[in-house]
Amino acid sequence: MISKLKVIFAGTTNNTSLKSGMQLPLMVIISLVTQVVVLSKTSIMASLFGVNPEVDAYNVVLNITTFIFSFLATGVTTILIPAYVKKTNDDAVNSFLTLIYFVSIILSLIIILIQKGLWSFFSNGNEVFASTASSIILLLLISQFFNTYLGVTTAYFQILSKYNIPKVCTLITSVLLVVLMIINKRMTIIELSIYTAGTAVLNAVIQSLLAKKYGMTYHIKFNYKSFEFKEMLMAYIPTIFSAGLYQINLLLNSLISTKIGTGNVTILSYANSFVGMINSVLILNLLIYIYPKLSKLILKDEEVGKRSLLQYIVVMNFFVCGVLIAYVAVGKDFLGLLLLHGRFTSHNLDMLFICILIYILGFPLSVTRDLFYRYFYAKGNTKATFYNSVTVSVINLVLSILLALIWGVFGIILGSVIGSLISAILIIKKFKQKYGIDKKQGLFYLTENVKIIISAILVIILIIGVKYLFTRLTNNIFINLIIMIIAGLIYFYFMYFSKSKLLSIIQKVMRV
User: Fold this and answer.
1) H helix or E strand, kind and range, residue 240
2) Using CA atoms, how far apart are residues 337 and 30, in angstroms rounded to an integer?
3) 123-132: burial string, b at 16+ Cβ within 10 Å, e else
4) 379, HSE (Cβ side, Cα atoms, 13 Å)
5) Does the pLDDT at position 116 exceed 60?
């Protein structure tokens, strides 16, 4: 695999930067279309099932299976990209992947064996919940197993700057899933799980065939004596626990939400789905674009890598604050258009809007943390991020439980946002201690971030004021779209008025 990468790199070095830059807008467009399809799925689910124990069971099982395989999948891409950049030996890479697949199968068998205890724990004695969960667990395990494999092909395509191949494959299978849901108007939760598993397998098969075409090969291998394999494994183990701790928090959030009333876990799952949509369209695309570049920059010149990291943070925070402005302007109208029909009520809508808003308020914090994490990953230092995750996960859990007692499902999400704040502060402090930040550069980029945040806050205050004064007018989605456009222009004006260097920073980032 690595030897073939060398050949490919040799033939594409001169135009890779240009091609990857051109692909970024296309990545966003494809992701946007994909998320529209995913939203269609959510809309159909809300209409068919509303909020009930069967849907709660589906979401809990999905969270559990995602939790299990996220231990493995997140770290795979994190470790493989630097390995491809360094052109690690084929035997080491294949041995690493063989170990991952073997552990995936073992974990799946364990979950199947202990499932009765799990459903008893999560169901609160609801027999419909327990029965539904038992019927769909194997199907969703299959779905998540194949999604784990996608982390391998995605890493391979990213290092070749072919970012959009995995996205197109996912779009095709997502459309197929929604078409099946539309055709089957009397669909059951079990049938939904069958469709989910089937499209996941199809996606993995398509991507595997395409990756093979571009030179990716995999053979079962386990050379545990290889130094490079041991090096990959030692870097990978902390990422397992880092990803796992995050997934534990999500799982515990689901558990807490089941304990504070029926339907809360579904509201929380819908909120996570919509936030995931925003992440997929904007944040993850930018991170996918940035991480391979950052890895190469750090390998070439660490100081350039650190400066680029600070520039990437400014650019990403500008975009995520823009997302917050857009959500305040039209978010509720958008959610109502999608969900306010069938068995989904206006009370459910109000709860969902607030949940997503709290999540989005934490976006600048989580983006900053994730970018610093990727610098550590690129340096092969996964222990620092692991220790940070342990500390924050404990704080997050305690806060979520305490705040849930006061504010219910809103408190669970607020606990996560406060956890993101603490996480960002701790990892920046660790970064300064380990790698250092030039004081002049640090102050400059901090000032640029402050300008972005203040501009966003002022625009949001204006939007809320207009909506408060003209309540009847702003109940119309088209008027709110106009408000959003005007708010966006004001946002840009505030950035100009504050003498922000954002445009020059973006130009520097795109030239890398």
Assistant:
1) helix 227-259
2) 22
3) beebeebbeb
4) 20
5) yes
Assigned token pair, 232: 């990959």
Distance in angstroms (rounded) separating the CA atoms of residues 429 and 192: 46
Give the closest residue to 510 by CA, choosing from 346, 259, 290. Answer: 290
The Cβ-side half-sphere exposure at 100, using a 13 Å CA radius, reads: 33
Write the single-letter amino acid at 371: L
Which ranges constitute the DSSP H helices of 260-283? 264-278
| Res 5 pLDDT > 60 | no
In 3-state terms, the chain is what percent helix, strand and coil (to 5)? 85, 0, 15
Type of residue at 289: Y
b/e burial code for range 184-196 (CB count within 10 A of at least 16 → b): eeebebeebbbbb
Length of the chain: 512
| Residue 479 pLDDT | 87
Task: Please state the rounded mean pLDDT for residues 296-320.
Answer: 85
On the CB side of 274, CA atoms within 13 Å amount to 26
- Are 81 and 156 in contact, with CB atoms under 8 Å apart? no
pLDDT, averaged across the chain: 80
Query: How far is residue 477's CA from residue 331's CA, in Å, rounded to a whole number?
Result: 10
Please answer whether residues 128 and 57 qualify as being in contact, where contact means their C-beta atoms are separated by less than 8 angstroms.
yes
Max CA-CA distance within the chain?
71
Asked whether 277 and 357 are in contact (CB, 8 A), the reply is no
Supply the DSSP symbol for 126: -
Tokens 């609160």 belong to residue: 124
* pTM score over 0.85: no
